[in-house]
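User: I've been trying to design a sequence by hand for this structure and keep getting stuck. Would you show me what you'd pick, starting by listing the structure so we're on the same page?

Assistant: Good idea, let's start from the same input. This is the structure you sent:
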């Protein structure tokens, strides 16, 4: 029998149901499950010693959680927040680190490192690293960018993006470009396959076996690709590719080609051919704006999924391998959908230019 000095543990139906559910946990919150079993056993009666013996815990543990439940009921079985170690780095010190990182450099170096910042502020290297991570600061990293200086930038953006978002009826929109200087390279040692805990491995050095150029036209509607390899990269090859497109696309469809300002696209021979084939309409992207041509996105897929980790002993082998990959792509093509309106693009670039002006640097590009 429990001691007459002990207040009996009486449970409501809801408390018994909750405690029973907690006590049955097998993988998570084992501490909470143990405390729930203690309270349930105490509610059945018996001394603290008997409950401790039945559950294989100490008398102090039973006494603690029995008293906690009687005082705070179910809430009493949760862990109380612990005070933890007091902060050693004040907000002012954090602000100092962030400000120095953003507004200064360490002497002759171009950027701070955790070691140089720690030496300059008297803090530990790990503390500097934690502050940088918290504020997303990466002094070692740098991104490149370039603004187009094309005087017709706005007009060309509106033309190309309008074509993407609202293609004309009874027409095919093709994003066209050349992936030049594709190298047939072979590693100096065989590529070692992936193993558990070990990625595939290849030597950093390689042997070159020649180059080829891939001309490609991406159908924006279906995602399929018309492609052809040529060993050279002149207007002669571009004309041959235009003729390939002309033969591949039904004659009743107009053709709108999005392409860059490369000189081979604008030679007199090309212009004469286009006059004789009026269903071809060329739309040029602004200079230094290859991101506007969706076929570049497809070239990225080709590079990441085939070229980067391949080895070829000849240009012929490379071309055959790429043709097989393109054939598989066209068997199940995936179109790339353009979603950003021209006004959004121009607004973003205008805001970026304003940031350049506000930062006190000379503007190096314009959207007009």
């Amino acid at each position: 029998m429990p001691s007459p000095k002990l207040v009996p543990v009486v449970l409501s139906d809801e408390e018994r149901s909750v405690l029973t559910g907690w006590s049955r946990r097998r993988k998570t919150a084992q501490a909470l499950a143990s405390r729930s079993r203690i309270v349930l056993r105490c509610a059945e009666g018996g001394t603290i010693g008997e409950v401790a013996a039945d559950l294989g815990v100490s008398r102090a543990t039973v006494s603690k959680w029995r008293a906690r439940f009687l005082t705070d009921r179910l809430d009493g079985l949760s862990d109380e927040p612990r005070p933890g170690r007091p902060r050693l780095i004040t907000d002012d010190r954090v602000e100092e680190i962030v400000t120095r990182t953003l507004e200064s450099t360490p002497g002759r170096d171009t950027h701070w490192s955790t070691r140089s910042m720690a030496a300059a502020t008297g803090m530990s290297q790990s503390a500097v690293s934690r502050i940088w991570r918290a504020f997303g600061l990466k002094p070692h990293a740098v991104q490149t960018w370039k603004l187009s200086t094309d005087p017709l930038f706005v007009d060309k953006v509106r033309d190309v993006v309008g074509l993407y978002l609202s293609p004309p009826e009874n027409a095919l929109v093709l994003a066209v470009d050349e992936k030049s200087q594709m190298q047939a390279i072979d590693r100096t040692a065989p590529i070692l396959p992936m193993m558990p805990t070990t990625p595939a491995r290849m030597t950093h050095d390689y042997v070159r076996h020649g180059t080829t150029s891939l001309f490609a036209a991406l159908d924006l509607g279906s995602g399929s690709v018309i492609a052809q390899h040529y060993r050279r990269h002149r207007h002669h090859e571009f004309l041959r590719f235009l003729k390939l497109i002309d033969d591949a696309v039904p004659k009743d469809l107009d053709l709108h080609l999005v392409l860059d300002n490369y000189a081979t696209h604008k030679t007199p021979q090309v212009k004469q051919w286009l006059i004789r084939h009026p269903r071809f309409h060329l739309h040029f992207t602004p200079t230094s704006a290859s991101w506007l041509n969706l076929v570049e996105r497809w070239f990225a897929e080709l590079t990441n999924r085939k070229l980067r980790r391949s080895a070829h002993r000849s240009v012929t082998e490379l071309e055959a391998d790429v043709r097989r990959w393109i054939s598989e792509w066209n068997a199940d093509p995936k179109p790339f959908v353009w979603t950003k309106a021209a006004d959004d693009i121009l607004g973003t670039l205008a805001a970026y230019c304003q940031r350049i002006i506000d930062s006190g640097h000379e503007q190096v590009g314009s959207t007009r």
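That's my pick for every position. To get oriented when you compare it with your attempt: The longest strand covers residues 171-187. The two ends are 92 Å apart (CA to CA).
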